[in-house]
Structures
1.
Amino acid sequence: MDIGLFTQTALTAVTLGLMYALIAIGLTLIFGVMRIVQYAHGELYMLGAYALYYATTQLGIPYWFSVILSAAALFVVGAVLQVVLFRPLIGKNMLYSLAVSMGLIFIISSGGLLMFGTVVRGIPSPFDGGITMLGALLTYERLTISLISGALIIGLWQFLAHTKMGMSLRAVSEDAEVASLQGVNTKRTHWIAFGLGSALAAIAGCLMGTLLSIVPTMGFGATMKAFMIVIMGGLGSIPGALIGAMILGVIDSFGTTLLNADIAYIIGFSVIFITLVIRPTGLFGQRWDG
Amino acid sequence: MNEGKLANRGSYFYAMVAAVLVLLAGPVVFGFDNYFLHICITIAFNVMLAVSMWLIWTLGLVSFAHAGFMGIGAYTAALLFLNFGWPLWFTLIAAGIVSGIFALVLAVPLMRTTAVYFFMASWAVGEVIKRIFAHFRNTFGGWDGLFNIRPPVLHLGEYTLNFSSRLNYYYLALAGCLLVVFFVNRIHSCRIGKTYWSIYDNETLAQHVGINTRGNKIAAFAIACAIAGMTGALYAHYHTYINPKSFDIWQSEFVLIYMIVGGLNTIVGPIAGAIVLTVLDELLRPTEYYRVIIFGVIVILSVLLFPGGLEALASRVRKAFGRRRHETPKEGEAK
């Protein structure tokens, strides 16, 4: 493996890792605050990408404004889903939320196939060109995407650490009953967390959609990655999700380049299995008795 | 959890006998066509999977690797048949043993995890099994799968039974299905079953009473996976063709949905769920593109509107009509 290929693969690993982190952090937020299994997270990521596609190509709205629109739209979708479908399931066995979100996957992904068609589409990127370093090409597109993901993750971290809303989210994920005794409106934190998580997934969908291409069935793959990361890092832990995403990014990028995609999957899942056997609650996880 | 069952065991027994007789005589009396028999065989497989998954559930665990172990069974049967010409009778047993052993070995580290971490770890197991079948092209045929796994022919003196006829395979699948249901029901209603529910209710307490929770979990997991493996062998010889896609995560998830929609407290739940949803899926076939969407809507509605599942339906109806005399003690809803 020469140095150029190595740097290129490493750069891909970082970009992929940051993108995965964005999806996974949304999921871990929902997990941590509500203790429900949101299995249809990837479908919201798909919807986010399609919202961007239609906003830019059909309505002619500028790219960055469309990303914001898509995130806002998916925030609303997430909040509504929480209030209508998931609120009655809080505190029940996780199997129920699992079943409901599986139903959602069926509805959204085949509804997507009907509405958007089976054609693979691409979103025109607002960038071209790039810089060459150590024999690897880093396009401005990837650079911007990585920077945006990084900024969003840091922003979310600051939001959770310092704002009143962020603190109440953390309080609810620590212990919902005690939090509501302290005057935190748990119902509101629930839908806000769900909306925020969905909006993050939508942004990830937008960025990934520009980089790759979009199809209505891409949701489940994203759900799978997000779950792998969240479980590896530990439920409800944002640093865990970040580290898990980086590990998976490295495995996927190097595994696919050096061997093939099936082997990359096998290695990825084996790493998760071994992580869970050594640390049964993930790298930074909280105990979760469902 | 299921005191209500003991109250009128007699009528349950007669209902069971009647149901079995209908299932045995049905195809001959009503003259089922091949399509209908195919649905019945599919239902039998789904019931076997759902019931064995339910056995793991009685310990409070949900496995996403079930289809993977079904795949191990199916591939064992297929390879033994294709390479050595073993008939189904031997591959069935071999499939059960091989997937049981794999499950036993994997369960030892798996049981360190609990709740949601367990089902993610089991997901990893299932996914790795599927990808291994897909990757090793020479042994397992890759994504294309294995072909030509013929159903067996039984020679009984001058009389031969050829199981490539749908009707004969229906009876074979039915026999397998009834045996599995009977076996799991026996486990469930004897002392071991009570031990399992005690682990479900409170694992720490169960440990304090002197129950080997870890050993019980591993044993139950291995038994359930062995059943899944045998279902896989039956599946392989029925479809004569298998590929890794037949055993992916969605297969496990459908089994989970059967269980949740059917109900989690008694063995009637998974059976009812598997039957109703398989039939429903077939009934929705004419709606073409909307089929999956409608299926999804029905799953969501049934979870939100009938939290106890189909098994609680009878007592709900009874309550609605105010016949309180025969009311069974209220089934505890799964926590």
2.
Amino acid sequence: MSSSATTLGAPAASASAPSRSLTWQRWLLWAVLIGFAAFFLLPLYVMVVTSIKSMDEIRGGSLLALPHAIDLAAFGKAWSTACTGADCSGLQPYFWNSVMIVVPAVLVSTALGGINGYVLSKWKFKGSETMFAMLLFGVFMPLQVVLLPMSQVLGWLGIASSVWGLILVHLLCGLPGTTLFFRNYYAALPDELIKAAMLDGASFWRIFVRIVLPLSTPIIVVCLIWQFTQIWNDFLFGVVFSGADSKPVTVGLNNLANTTSSVKEYNVDMAAALIAGLPTLLVYVIAGKYFVRGLTAGAVKG
Amino acid sequence: MGALSIRQVKKSYGSHHILKSVDLEIEKGEFIILVGPSGCGKSTLLSMIAGLDSPTSGNILLGDRDITYVAPKDRDIAMVFQSYALYPNMTVAQNIEFALEMRKVPKAERKVLVDKVSKMLQLDHLLDRKPGQLSGGQRQRVAMGRALARQPSLFLFDEPLSNLDAKLRVEMRAEIKLLHQRTKTTTVYVTHDQVEAMTLGDRIAVMRDGILQQFGTPDEIYSRPATKFVAEFIGSPAMNMITAKRERNTLSANGIDLQLGPQLGAALAAHDAQELVYGLRPEALRFAPAGTGLAGKLTMIEPTGPESYAFVETAAGPLVIRVPGKVDGKVGDTVSLNWQPADVHLFDAKTEQRVVAAQPQLAVA
Amino acid sequence: MKWVARPRIDWLPKLVVAPSFVLGFLFIYGLILWNAYFSVSASRLLPNYEFAGIEPYINLFESDRFQVASWNLAIFATLFIGGALALGLLLAVLLDQKIRQEGVLRTIYLYPMALSFIVTGTAWKWILNPGLGIEATVRGWGFESFQFDWLVDPDKAIYCVAIAGIWQSAGFVMALFLAGLRGIDDSIIKAAQVDGASLPRIYWRILIPSLRPVFFSTIMVLSHIAIKSFDLVMALTAGGPGFATDLPATYMYSMAFTRGQINLGAASATVMLAVVAAIVVPYLYSELRSTKR
């Protein structure tokens, strides 16, 4: 892939002027870019800055002002003593609920997606493409349409108010997406690799484990990161399918921020938001390029 | 009975017929070429021999075993692919011994075979590298090594030299030929390159649109092409083809008389075709003294070093002549051409079959 | 004809994918049908399988609240899609100008997508709040008469939701367009420069038009996000003031789970499905066809 070779501010056929010359156009470009960066960073800045201020400072000062002194008490409160409705045990129980939900759902949906993708790309059978297309609709459909029936199903299975219910739902919901990721990735693997392995005597599973899996690291990472982000950030399923003890961190946060029981402690609210968002933010910062691959893979390829 | 028999093999996808009944008998130790233009079905046929695909009807036998529906790994066949298909995550040694591992050959034995094969192909210093670290020629040799280690009764090659540059291709061609002389394993080799076909094959099967045009030795294919297609496909520059009109038992093109020797004359008399094609290989044409032979004008000269091709416009159409060394003349000159009647190839314009003198046709069409 | 591998055991691949397909199909189509049945049943607070015909749908379309929600969706979707497209494209074009810190800037523009809006919404609610956020801050700077109370204004609140939505998704649009721009052959641009085209003209006449497929798929995805928008509204306004920022997604949740009108909830969900299907199915169909060799 080549990058567009045009450069703003550089005279077209000049050999002497360096392309990084600070012409006014370049200044304007940078100003605009930094302006937008400020726009995008605004909420994050507000969250960070507010969470380390004391309530007096918040009441007295402006939204955007930097703190005079750093006070980390809000984080402790957010974690263990803030009130989320009737309970006042902070975000902690919700955070762990999220962990319990995310880990199995991500691992299982990724594993199944990998195997499905392997079959759908290399071992196609009659009708497999059509079935895949129909499964793909699950990626696009509005989830509202499964909320009511699914509550019934979870009730019958006896897991309506537990983390297992949420794990099941996230698994089922993620399956079409993970299958799509792997199927597209494996489709790009040369068929001749499979042919050679068949001639060498490898069976369906041997080929998968010895040849295909070792080549799958990038897509596995993309899938794990994508699924993790989707499931950790989910709110709709969390609010509909969880019972008293199985609410994920997004629901907990929402309750915490909207609770009307006591005086509004903005720094605690912001600290709680940061705690809730930290895992996905960390994943994004560390493995951003895989995150982008997941986004573009899902959107561009049908 | 041959080492490999292909009997009336047909392959269709719905109404699309890729192979329209192919018959081939291949002897043990032979190096057979399947050659033809893209889409002629040669790769499909190879896939079916390998077991990666199965025919719509017909049989494939290896020796006296019917392997038409036997799984690839049970056929005792090894294959070298166009893209080599080396396992990227394994070393050269692991690639070569993978098939042996699948057959549960003990580790010590595997090592012996790998060493033997890598020495034969000069790969012994590369055994710990991964395919990504090898050059094109080295990868090709690893692919061959993988096939050799299997010690199969049949080798299949699917256009293995297409991805190499010209110089490397010539080197690897020689290596493949040497290897075959050493191992004497029956080999089926698919290519679209007629030079590879002519230099490597003991016998060549020319295919077109799913039909076998001719199956014979390189000499038979070159000197006695069974169809117009084979005549044009093999040999470069291609055979000159002159559309001829028939007047009883003589041929002419645009008023020019086309000579036929006694044998061909008799063959024509016995044949009832009205439209014919008169073929002459470029090396069969000669420059004649002015006034004799067929007159024409030199329009282009292509010197290639050891020989030159000259393009001449004549009343019978444009002709290409091949002469050793340099052409005596320049573009625009008037020249005369002549040739021996014995060098003429005659084809029925409609059926494209060779017109022969009361002899069984060599073509299997 | 593309080669397909044949396994030793013919049915093995089918067996392997069967659980996923069966469960997936049940989850998607089984539940859609079930939901559709709810939408024509007499269910209120609890499921009730008595048939009620299209009465729920009539009630739905006559309901003031649903009409507001649908109208809001139209406004929101237009602003959101238009805004995200424009901003995303602008950022992509700007970032295409060989910026040294491109990586950092890209990370900044894209991070909103990595966070739940429930998380970032806590800040947005504050920022848009007249008494605490921008209005207060700007007034604090001396502009006493500055007004920015859109969030609590029933007519303008939906614009806030759109702004927040654009903020979250513009980076994603940018990533798609940037990838598209980078995929364009260098030689086309060089040819245009040799022909004497100025930079803006090259972008406007050559590069952006060649991004048409990216436009299509991006609009598709953005429409999908717009219709699904739930977190965004709940975090920012919870549908308020009143129902001024209600969207079909929040309406559905409200009817189904807090107002005890299951059949209305189910009907609204079915309507949402129909709208999405009308957009997605033709797109998917054409995409899959074009990849069939």
3.
Amino acid sequence: MSEYIIKNGNVYDPKTKVKGEVKDICIKDGKIVDKVSSKATSIDAKGKTVMAGGVEVHAHVAGPKVNEGRNFRPEDKLFSYQPAGKNTRMAGGFSIPTTFKTGYEYARMGYTTVMEAAMPPIYARHVHEEIKDTPIIDEAAFPVFGNNWFVFDYIKNNEMDNVMAYISWLLKTTKGYAIKIVNPGGSEAWGWGENCNTIHDPVPYFDITPAEIMTGLLKANEKMGLPHSIHVHTNNLGNPGNYETTLDTFKLTQGVKPNNKFGREQVLHHTHVQFHSYGGDSWGTFESKAKEIMDYVNANKNMTIDLGCVTLDETTTMTADGPFEHHLTTLNHLKWANVDVELETSSGIVPYIYDPNIKVCAIQWAIGLELALYAKDPMRTFITTDHPNAGPFTRYPRIYKWLMSDKSRQAMLKGFKHSDKVIAATNLASMDREISMYELAEMTRAGPAKALGLGNIFGGLDKGMDADVGIYDISEDKITDPEQIEKAFSSAEYVFKSGTLVVNHGEIVSNGNKRTLWVDAKIPVNKQVERDVQMKFLKYYSVNLNNYEVSDHYVPNPYVIEVDTN
Amino acid sequence: MDIIKLIPNKVPELYLESEHISPDIFAGKSNQQIGELNVHMGNQTYKLSEFFTIEGKAGATAAETKIVFAGDASKIKYIGMKMTAGEIEIQGNADMYVGAWMGGGRIVVKGNVDSFAGIAMTGGELIIDGNAKNYIGAAYRGDWRGMQGGKIIVKGDVGSDVGSNINGGTIEIGGNADVHLATHADGGKIIVKGIAKGRVGGQMVKGEIYLGGVERMMPSYKYDHEEEVELDGKKMNFKVYYGDLGERHGKRKGEIIYGKIFLASDSVKTDANKPEVKPEHKGKLTDKQIAQLKEEFKAKEPTVQEVRTYIIDTFGFDLKPMPISRLIESMKR
């Protein structure tokens, strides 16, 4: 394989604690190395920013609901198609881009690892088919466990061994990566036309509470020592006053210590916290509770969050939180799709316009940024938009701009139609913190990689790590206009993925060597679980067990993370 | 205003997709540059000059440019797409998407147009002297934002789904309209001087539709009152219907806002004005009539439907299928 040397760049790497020093980065055989031979291709990065490849911790980029979004929103693709190029296929779409565009756009921004945040196990094949069709980036998918009948039964009867055996079986069967929990119990309750609005509302029929579900899965996760912690989207998303539910959820981690061999330090990752940090008791009194939320996060080292920043675009919301999507369509009266996924979860899709002229949308925008600005530890606070729910991932550079420049934030705040009301309901106007380039690298590279248990492979530039590198035409001390930040991060000068040059001056030059990560937890299926699985498939599932498993040919280039159970 | 003339010099083998024929794009360009603009046919790209002779000149700005299409454009799509100012005159027919997404200016078509003319239009004027096909002033597929402003005038007839998802602007139709007029309307105004076929205003929550007549009214509309309205400077009486009652409706100042259908009071061809006539199910055939039936169908055994139709047409009443079936049995004996 070829060798590269990236010369004289300003390197930001939290992994090796390099804070903008001028340094050479050497790449050989797909890995970062100390030195290369004289034959190495030299890339001049003088006055440019060099970072590890970005790691996306939470996005909806592949699978049945993403594809249904594409199907039912032809208007999202209108005028957006780019014809095929030398190394690219035809690609289009805005909030729900085609798989190809997803790969190209992430790569152009310098992202090389992406997590698909919600995989319904029964549709895991579809998820992996789309992942296979997404070029360049390494991907993994989180199967959803929070509304699963097996999990309900085992946790209710306090059969932890069975919970772990089932988790291990399902991760292997669906080639999944981590335990995702979406509106625990609530999506199942929706099958009865109900919801769980606090973590203590019992699920109909099963008579188990969301708190019990999350605690059970959390304990199982730590006992198994999986690379990632449980990945939670708690109950009561999107409702005024829901921050109390969120804090209740956070408190479930109290006293729990991480147990794993992957360098992960948290026991719970809470995703798109912006949607869970609302105060007030109606849309009229709607306000930010970002401070209360972040006070808790700052004080408790055993959890991580990602933001879910609203980018004020027209987008498509999609989540496994079925009842929420139904609630949303009654608010905005736009078209709507919902489905109940057998024994496992539910799902819904509604287009949504985050209009800066609407007070609530502008407050949501402010909350997302506040969360990041209140964060004392950027290694535990990651930038996301919960793509495409709060905005498309292609807007990340714009979020960097808002976080790194107080000027651009204040200009936005002043430009809103209900500027005074928005300022009164949020704290953003009084915050002048500006995120540094180093902190940005923590929030988008080292932090998420560490939380995913991949801190020794991705998100850093240490010797022996995967050679995922992004080089941006920007220098931290020479930024005069905030727009430069957005421009530079939208289109990286060079991007390396596992040592292959994939982006050269914004052009895709190679489709890389895309891999699919999955976790082999190595806990054998016990007799009880085996029998339960067979019985449930016989009695309830619409498919045969043989048509359920994601067989190897769906994952042609796997990267298996093996969990050592001893 | 400068006039630039496009004279077709050959008929395209397939259909030309020519989103560049618009005053906004022509303005400030030399005829040579205009000739270099792209058009697509199938999966191939051609130059505009391969299909047209270009005469005259374009103005400095869109507003000062008038494009005259001297000939037939019935195989050319997207004329005047996204235009914001200036004028286009098409002297023959045009294909789909004339004036689609247009925001201003004026397009006059002397002949007929195909579907999707003026979809998602936000301003300007689109005048069609002939007939128009389906989805005039509607929304793009999947979108909920149809025509939002401006004016479309069709002097002839229109096809189906005209003004679906309309939420602003005016569509005026001189002739008749096919089914599904103003489906999902959320505002705007549609005037049909002729007869609308049916399913008018399905799922409409707001907006106004004026009809010269309607073949069949939706059952989800209720008659409210009669009202005198001035249309084209002429005072006319209309019966006002509120609906679509199956949909959500917003409130303003405590009053519920409905979509309104104004049906001309003097309209002739309409069942809404007539008391509903149900064919009589009662009735019995006289012996003489049975004999007549036997004579009519002696050649071969008739179907129930044939006999039923014959009875309605000749004797003026209806029989249910079962008695007819029995009748046929008895005729055989």
4.
Amino acid sequence: MTMKYISILLILLSLVSQAQILDNKRPMPEVDVKSIDGMNINTKDFENGDAPIIISFWATWCKPCVTELTNIAEVYEEWQEETGVKLIAISIDDARNQTKVAPFVNGKGWDYEVYLDPNADLKRALNVNLVPHTFLLDKNKQIVWQHNSYAEGDEEHLYELVKKLAEGGEVSEP
Amino acid sequence: MITNLLRVLALLIIVFSFTKAQGQQQSAGELHGNFQVDAQYYNKDSLIGAPVVPEKVLTNGFMNLWYTRGDFSAGIRYESYLNVMQGFDPRYRGTGVPFRFASYKNDNFEATVGNFYEQFGNGILLRAYEERGLGYDNAFEGVRVRYQPTRGVYLKGLIARQRTFFTLSPGIVRGFDAEVNLNELIYPNTVKKTIVVLGGGIVSRFQTDQDPIYNLPENVGAFDARLNVIRGKVNFLAEYGYKYNDPNATNGLIYAPGQALSVTTTYSTKGFGLLLAAKRLDNFDFRSDRTAAGIGANINFLPALTRQHTYNLPATIYPYATQPNGEMGFQAELSYKIKNGSLLGGKYGTEITVNFSGTNGIIKNPTSNDTLGYTSPFFKASNEMFFRDFHVEIHKKFNSKLKGTFMYLNWVYNKDVVQGLAGFGTIFADMAVVDISYKLAKRHTLRLETQALISKQDLGSWAMALLEYTYSPHWFVAVLDQFNYGNPNSDLQIHYVTGNAGYTNNGNRIMLQYGRQRAGIFCVGGVCRNVPASNGFSISLLSSF
């Protein structure tokens, strides 16, 4: 039993001494996801030139997630014109609802890039507890901000950060 | 065993970090994780059947710590149940590190030792996953390899045992899966209009036979085949699974093979979506322990073919659960957005969803060979209705401040079959939901949600109201009342009232709740959680870092 705790301690110590635990930025993890038309893609191929990327975890059954994406959809064109931002929506729907994702997204008329994460590999790699959970990536694809849950109006704060990044400013609240 | 694994892990991490650090100038890696703790103080409440809790306070907590560095990653999850909260399986007892892994991944190869989650296709044959809020975790422990010999070909193999709470299930699971995306394989650099993906897997379970009476198969094999064709707006997906003789605790120890078939077609364009799906399951409960029943040791994943509801009366009072040993179901869903600026659409458009799903039993004709149990015509369902859900949902934004969701549902629910009970029969219920949100000022929003469930059977009718105030981006408060006003027992016509408040900052969140809670999925304050029946004060803390 003691050995077990010593081992855990050892692991933690070796990690803490090595890792950039309190670094203000974090690179996007490289994980395979599926597009809604069946193609496999790695997150390292998420691309938006020098403009910021928003990554939003959601599910078809998650009302606050859908509210968030619907609200952003209304201003998305404007956001894109002003800042070039791209929103990538990661659906955590499992086999029960996965086939619904494409008709759902189309039914809503959303213009987002949408991917599936059926084995929750990306969700785990980004340590997401609950949905909705939103991340903001800068032009170097470093995670500079995250937020869980959604309340009406949250997108305004997000957009302030997007604008700051688009104007070449720094955001660092990972 | 655990100690050894941890020691190996520690060694690996140390060796890796030093060799790499000396080899080249690169980042020392990243350490990240997440954390959640829930604690509840329980009041005695015999009315709602909340049991007496001698400890007064119960807590569940966990932390994931994940280290990645280049192609290498390793991680652990510590879990603590002191003692486990009401509504979770009591086999979660004490504390431990039930999840630990090390993994190496480059562009086309990945090897993982220790614990991992995996899914073949849509999980009809094999799926290990976690649902921490529900206390569900059937992670594998063993070895897994993923290999991509060429673009478009995806191979996976694993040998592992399965987690059941703090122990491992007795069976050994061996699995191999291959998936070929013909487009990626044949035309890697061009975009084709038609995409074809073929897949298939084999899974076998080994468990010793120590039964004094029966000669039980120690190795039980199963396979599946999948086809996915996507052409423009149409997506067709079919999956078939077959399981060889597997006498087990849930099928009454019959030796008949099991079968599963699921077919889904969707058509969608901007503003219009249509889904048609059908499935059949016969004797397809597949576990890494033939004696297991209830929750635990499931190798495959057979979700219900019905809409997963978000509003809490439809989501929690009569939710359907798959009957893996015999059901036939269908689902149709149409979603349509009436365009902005049209007469019916108004300035912002109107979204409409219509969904109809139903499941019946299968016909089981007794046979003279009682080891096979029964025979069943493949394309015929029995007349026994398990579940029906018809509903219409309309979402409308009236102006920049006011929007609403309106829903009507009509349900048929066979309580005896779905919950494995007797004497409750089939319940008919109508439900309605009105969810209005009003923006008081920039960042200040008030939301009122009212729901009703009308039924003359079982617990009778329910009414529910939720008032929520959010102050973006940090705060929310809410009051929720569920009133079982139609309960045939007038002593049980009670109000379940809870007050909630929460604060969110970036990846951190704290939530408080006081009151009487019915069991179910509750979506309050911008997140959805699954909670058991209780009365008392609870606090929930979570953080991603």
